[in-house]
Amino acid sequence: DIDCVYEALLNTAIDIDSLEADSRLDEVWIKEVIKKSGMKLKWSKLKQDKVKENKDAIRRPPADPALLTPRSPVVTIMGHVDHGKTTLLDKLRKTQVAAMEAGGITQHIGAFLVSLPSGEKITFLDTPGHAAFSAMRARGAQVTDIVVLVVAADDGVMKQTVESIQHAKDAQVPIVLAINKCDKPDADPEKVKKELLAYDVVCEDYGGDVQAVHVSALMGDNLMALAEATIALAEMLELKADPTGPVEGTVIESFTDKGRGPVTTAIIQRGTLRKGSILVAGKSWAKVRAMFDEHGKTISEAYPSMPVGIIGWRDLPSAGDEILEVESEPRAREVIDWRKFEQELEKNKDDLKIIEEKRKEHQEAHQKAREQYGTLNWKERSFKKYLERKEQRPLKAKKKAEGDSNVLPIIIKGDVDGSVEAILNIMDTYDASHECELELVHFGVGDISENDVNFAETFDGIIYGFNVNASNVIQQSAARKRVKIKLHKIIYRLIEDLQEELSSRLPCLV
Ligand code: GDP
To answer: What contacts 34, CB < 8 A, 6 or more positions away?
Structure first.
């Protein structure tokens, strides 16, 4: 209901902008805001800094180094199509399922853990290829610590090999080279290493620091060596995270499960996720109902670098969305509201720019008025303005007895200073553009009084009340004296009413 919004807008505006601040209201401007933003918003919500505040409020400062503990690496497998990425991932996963003995059904959760005999763990992201990697990066997510670059030994460096290298470099993620298909008779691993030199990927044999492992994903040959090389690199990177405090993570995948509703899989990057935690991600939030690992097993805690399936989302977040834990459900809702609002703002950016310019204009006008009227309060200021106007243009309103005049004398009463000033300010603009067919003969705060009625009677004027009452006694007195009292609760209605009165009084001028 646009009227309600309008009223809310006006009222909020009056609340927010204290009397000495910018309380100048422009009817057109507010209408514009509603129209352009296309949303039913409160004025205060237009404050973009508030959006930012709500976005950043839940982001924690960097962790205290004392709280950091080692974490396992998160690895993405990249390389040219058909060089064996999927086969490699499948084999790595199978080594784990075999090792699990239980032989449980593996669930696709976008990532899985490989445990080495040494007890070290590696998290492999399940979606091979740089499309997924760059999609995540485009969203600002940096989940990957290490890229395993797969190059087929029979094929050598190809287009997507080069692209993968570029992506890893852009993200400043180090590479471990997996020279694949070494079981093939025409495999030439040395050729691969040489070719890579041209792309600044220098293997250890050539004096560089890139470890190269000859593997056969198909046969499962040397995969442990690849895992160990990855761990060796991870140790050098000294990967650490703070496992305490509110959780941070990244959505790897999200999908709707028939039985469980929206599910996301995520990599935890900070804190420890537990059942009952309240999370926000993108424009969705969750109260964690359950968590499970890649074997479909329910888990009670998820630590940094752990892939985890999370149930309890209200909507589906997107891959790459940042997950942040918040303290309560209301807070989660608030954050989501602000994010949605921000999106709307973004959609209406250009229109809002115009609105913002208008607002600036008004602020400047207000500033000017302030310079002109110094430290006077609104009443003194209004009165001074009123006197000045009078000086420039003698009061045209004549007492009833003196006969007809070309003006509409009015009396304005409002509930609070702010509302009266707002009306006066709108009238000011109106005044200027219409060569004063309106004349304010009296104004003030409070219910309509006998004094107001007398004023109105004397000048044959109309009383306008905003958010005020007129008692029965006053109503009767006004009726006797043939004085119109018009009460409004919405400023623009009041202004419209005024304009109608004007046009009915001065049909030739409007
Ligand atoms: P992706 O496109 O990089 O994911 O490549 P795939 O894993 O789908 O493998 C492409 C083809 O290469 C498949 O036919 C695999 O069976 C085969 N392949 C993958 N790894 C090896 C390997 O180590 N040796 C041999 N001989 N073939 C392999």
So the answer is: 2, 5, 6, 9, 40, 41
Q: Is 129 in the pocket of ligand 1 (CB under 6 A)?
A: no
150 DSSP β-pair partners: 79, 178
Q: Which residues contact 496 (CB under 8 A, 6 or more apart)?
A: none
pLDDT value, residue 388: 64
Give the pLDDT confidence of 352-395 residue by residue, as tens digits. 666 666 666 656 766 666 666 555 554 555 566 656 655 665 55
| Residue with CA nearest ligand 1 atom 9 | 84
Three-state DSSP class for 324? strand
Q: How far is residue 217's CA from residue 20's CA, in Å, rounded to a whole number?
A: 73
Q: Over the range 166-185, which residues count as b (16 or more CB within 10 Å of their CB) and which as e?
A: ebbeebebbbbbbbbbbeee
pLDDT digits (tens, 9 = 90+) for 348-358: 666 666 666 66
Query: Which pair of structure tokens corresponds to residue 112?
Result: 């899985």
According to DSSP H, which parts of 71-214 are helical?
85-100, 130-138, 159-170, 189-197
Q: Which pair of tokens denotes residue 140? A: 């600002």
Question: Per the structure block, which two tokens stand in for 358?
Answer: 């208008």
The model's pLDDT over 111-161, given as tens digits with 9 standing for 90+, comes to 888 988 888 999 998 776 666 677 777 666 688 999 999 999 999 999 999
- In angstroms, the CA 499 to CA 510 distance is 9
Chain centroid to CA 494 = 36
Distance 206 CA to ligand 1 centre (A): 27
DSSP single-letter state for residue 462: E
| Alpha carbons 295 and 151: distance in angstroms, whole number | 29
The strand pairing partners of 70, in sequence order, are 240
Ligand 1, residues 82, 87, 160, 215: which to mutate, most atoms within 8 A of Cβ?
87
For the Cβ of 283 lying below 6 angstroms from any atom of ligand 1, the answer is: no
Among residues 410, 447, 405, 444, the alpha carbon closest in space to that of 427 is found at 410
pLDDT digits 0-9 by tens, 229-243: 999 999 999 999 999
CB 158 within 8 A of CB 80: yes
Query: What does residue 219 show for φ and ψ, rounded to 5 degrees?
Result: -85, -15
What's the gap in Å between 152 CA and the centre of ligand 1?
A: 8
User: Does the interface predicted TM-score (ipTM) exceed 0.85?
Assistant: yes
Q: Is 113 helix (H, G, I), strand (E, B) or coil?
A: strand
- Neighbour tally for 229: CB within 10 Å: 20
Atom of ligand 1 nearest to the CA of 150: 3
180 lines ligand 1 (CB under 6 A): yes
**What ranges make up the beta strands (E) of 415-483?**
438-445, 462-466
Q: Among the atoms of ligand 1, which is closest to the Cα of residue 80?
A: 3
